[in-house]
Amino acid sequence: MDLGERNLTDINQYLAFFEANNNLIRVKTEVDPKLELAGIAKKLEGTKPILFERVKGSEYPVLIGLYWNRHILADILGTTNSQLPFVLQNEIKQWHLSPMEPVVRKQGPANEVIELDVDLSTLPIPHHAEGDGGSYLTSSVVIAKDPDTGVRNLSIHRMMVTGKNRLTLLLEELGHLMDYYKRAEAKGEALEITVNNGIDLPLTVAAAAPASAAPIDMDELGIASQMRGEPVELIEAQTVAVEAIANAQFVIEGRILPEVREIEGPYAEVTGYYAEQAPRWVFEATAITRRKNPIFHSILSGKEVRNAYGMSASAGAFTKINALVPEVTAIHFADGSVPYHLVVQIDKKHEGSQRNAMMAAFVALAFVKAVTVVDTDVDIYSSEDVDWAVATRCCYEKDLLVIPDAIGHRLNPMVEEDKWTRLGIDATVPLPRPDKFRRATNVDVELSDYQIEGV
């Protein structure tokens, strides 16, 4: 993949691409970033990206919806919806074989303007859901360095504004950033980071890649470089020893403080529920750099998060699952369930392979709660087809794999004391395939060959 050749390595280039293909909604009426902006976005969720041109209290427009339509995501990458995970899988595999180092420069678009007197209120950071604890950064990519090796890591975290230069953020217990932070905190040191807003799709994919695809000793910027077809350009930060993305719209520099916790939340998470309010980690901003005419990017929790995470996680996990069970042909997070329900397609050659596939998926994806395995004649991108397979091919008495007391995902309200039950569902036809399971088919015709009205 060479997005550089297609001139699609920048948010501004994306907007031009969307305009040319009639895939951009513009809201010209002034909107309030507190609740109103997200309220409009929710009404249009899943359609086209939206550019809010006039945002109350700020001079910067806001882009939302960049990731909520998989077909548009596929267009950006020059592929199809069904091939999207395989394209990403191939790119990640190539990255492992020949990592590409980023290029570091002193100046770039993201530091055309430098603000050392930080005031986060100047940014149009939306307050999304009615029960949220405040305004949240939801789409910004964090760059940090391993305190011992210097290897860079990319990640995305919800970050709630709590003051002029202060935010509270959630760190995942199994994430690399948490690992970095714990080692820095043990030395009594802050962990320096840059928070990069308004970046391109490859960087988001790299930041969302699971640990199974992106080991802690590899610089995840290489995934983005591989997808772009050229090294990612970084710029030196003004106040911290961590680089920033050169073509970001905004960069917030700062540090996660040691031994300090402050209240964060509630926040409407991808689960559709509010994550609880609790003392969490504190980020102190030390500088903001930006473009002269930047566009602020936000993500609406829902389809955008499911697509962004599901696309990245499935690409990385497929390689690992397929290596353990070669009969696995594709995987997909069921719509509405990300990251909890994974559908696995298998070309079953041996009875029992479906159970191996379930266990491989549970190992590859720590947060998956349920795995449904189906045959190759089932469309894994269709919830209707998957439901049909479960209803007509799963014998509940013997085709369910129940794993109690497994480690759960803290954002899911069903988790109690960090535990939940994981479930494997075998919706495959038993071997040898009895004729009673042969699917009904119709002759394939081309509708353009017929004179049809009203279609």
TrEMBL record:
GO terms for molecular function: carboxy-lyase activity. GO terms for cellular component: cytoplasm. It holds the Pfam family UbiD_C. Residues 16-84 form the 3-octaprenyl-4-hydroxybenzoate carboxy-lyase-like N-terminal domain. Residues 317-427 form the 3-octaprenyl-4-hydroxybenzoate carboxy-lyase-like C-terminal domain. Residues 105-303 form the 3-octaprenyl-4-hydroxybenzoate carboxy-lyase-like Rift-related domain. NCBIfam families: UbiD family decarboxylase. Belongs to the UbiD family. This is 2,5-furandicarboxylate decarboxylase 1.
